[in-house]
Amino acid sequence: MRTVTAAAAVLVLALLPVAAPWLQFVLTLAIAKGFAALGVAVLLRAGLISIGHAMFYAASAYGVAFLARAGVNDLGLLLILSVLGGALVGAVAGLFLVRYRAIFFAMLNLAVSMVFYALCAKLYGVTGGTDGMPVPVPAVFGVVLGEPAFKSVLFYLSLGLMVLIGLAVQRYLNSPLGHALAAVHTNEIRLEYLGIPVWAVLLIAYVISAALAGLGGAIAGFAIGRVVPDFAFWTASGHLVLIAVLGGIGGVPGAFIGALFLELLHSAAVTVTDSWNLIVGVTLIIVIMFMPQGVYGLLARKEAASL
Amino acid sequence: MTSRGISIVVARCLSSLEWLFRLDRGVPQGKVRWVVDGLAGALALGVVAATPAAAQEKPSALGLGIFTFTSGPAAAYGMPGKNAADLMIGEINAKGGIGGVPVSATYVDEAQGAQGVIAEYRRLAGDAKNQVMVAALSSANCLALAPLAEQLEVPTVGWNCDTHQLLMDGKSKYVFRPNGNTVPEFIAYAIYLLDRKPDVKTVAIINPDYAFGHDAAKIFTAALKALKPDVEIVAELYPKLGSPNYQTEISRLTTARPDVVFSNLWGADLENFVRQAAPRGIFTSSQVILALGETVLQRVPLPDGVIVGVLGDGWWMSPDARAKPETVKFAEAYKARFGEYPVFPSIKMANALIYVKAAYDAAMRKNGGKWPTRVELADAMNGSKVETLTGIAQTRTDNDGLVDQIVGVTVRTSAQQFPVIGDMVRYKGDSLMPQAGQDPLAWIATLKPEFAKGLPKPGSYK
């Protein structure tokens, strides 16, 4: 039943842009943010809230822009290299950040990401300041595509990656390494007594989550065609945490459901009124008050009840 | 409608797939049916949406996507633009619209950031009703939308888009800017300053900390150095956009004691700066240049003798503007409706809409009165010369605009309760612009002190 629902949902997503072509961009962006929110959700398992994951999102997007400027012009290569770049930034930051817990972890992530943001905005000659850097349309396996074709390729690639990486992350979370995250949350000392190095468990989780955020950022960079420092601003990080919580941190689909929900809500709200922030905010309050398990939690609970 | 027929057939075929699912697999029938029907519906919609609307027929309404800030701090600049658009569209429709077709605008809030703006642009461009986009205010958004406009082939008129980077590559076919850019806008201040205060030695700059502020500082400094090489920049301050407090910066300025303080702060930032700087004597100890000062003339009491301008020719009280009855009427109608006279962002927006209307008129004259396509419209904009509310907006073959630059100083008159601009100069648009394809900063570096000699002097425009 679950597989059928998931397959149907992916199929609907695949067909939606055929019905409304402008949705393709919104959905690509939603999937991109879903990846980043999934990264946040992985750390949430260990009870660690990162209000700084937009840094990896932006680092990878800037990575794409810099690589493209340096002459790399292949979608696959750009994606892999920039995600590796995001993961590398994650490994460096994670080395010292995973030693902290609770509010200290959240605040230090925030601080580091804002340093990154300031660098992006202030290194005017390198990053173009607030005007950002362009991301050209790359070739796909040597094939040079027009813009609309590339955007379709990007969308279906993101959709495919969503399924593949979603499954991989599911496997990871169900592995001993993944279950150790929940154990860190409940009783960290016991874990150490069992002979499991908490630091290594968390560092691996941190790098994975940075790579996920990086993948999201790279896709977003391609979709938007321009990278601006706002990608790394703390509100963007908050947005990712919000998506993760909104979708429900119970499982992998939660992050993507949350991202789709928020992006579509945003798109709908801005067409109605200038006070779109109000509509988005009120909806979020309602969801958080009445669906503490998130949107996915609601679906999962219904299923549990029907069993 | 053949397309509708096709879509119904496709939908029926898809629906008939349902029998495949009739086998009992423990799947609730209702849900599968819902999914399949949904897919069929989506596909049917897609077939209809993908069918191109017949061009050349006059539509019942002409849609315009207008991008501006309607929320957040930048709305201080964006809302006067939106107000002017409302008013101007009302005026155009009252006169029968464009070629008999009424205009309706969809406003997009730029405060969403580049992602939201791009999503909205794509959505609006997907609707054949929206033939033209008037986008955008923020330079970052303009730069993000420009490649999209080329790819989707939608004529896009930058109503503000100050950055000189926008059309620098000269390859744009669909992006137009019937305005000056940062280069002529800020060179004009350097020339005016040197005419008015030829013995200036030290200059301090206080600009907002983002691309517009840094660009302006770079251009203004380069122009000053080229025209008077012994000028020294004694302080460059970049306060954060939207900061409420400028006391630290003002302290720096008072200790640096510069002859001139240049600033392109705007909106609430500018109002805050002026309110905090005036009591501390900045306006008496230094000659202050407020590049966007005209926007706050009606709001804060600026002292006399501050160099202000309108980043173009959009001063509603300029001699040219006063001579045009429609401009006077527009300004009075604006005052009656919004409680304030138009500021230059309003005039820029109104002029952009006049520019769009002129392009439609020209395109229809050329193709014999048929409703123009997006391509014909872009052709009509390229190389055009349009009479606006405040002057002429000329479009070069590289799509960049040439408009005159008005600079002056604040003076008090008996006619208005607020200070107005006096001792004005009006530089010709092309005299301050590099040739198409020339790197603007390299061009500025080639300027010689003699360059300014041939230009009109302060007070010559009355």
From TrEMBL, chain A:
Transmembrane portions of the chain: 35-68, 75-97, 103-124, 153-173, 193-224, 231-256, 276-299
Protein keywords: Cell membrane, Membrane, Transmembrane, Transmembrane helix
Compartment(s) of residence: Cell membrane
Protein name: Branched-chain amino acid ABC transporter permease
Pfam families associated with the record: BPD_transp_2 (PF02653)
Superkingdom of source: Bacteria
CDD domains on file: TM_PBP1_LivM_like (cd06581)
Its membrane topology: Multi-pass membrane protein
Main location: membrane
InterPro entries noted in UniProt: ABC_transp_permease, LivM-like
Keyword Cell inner membrane carried by entry: no
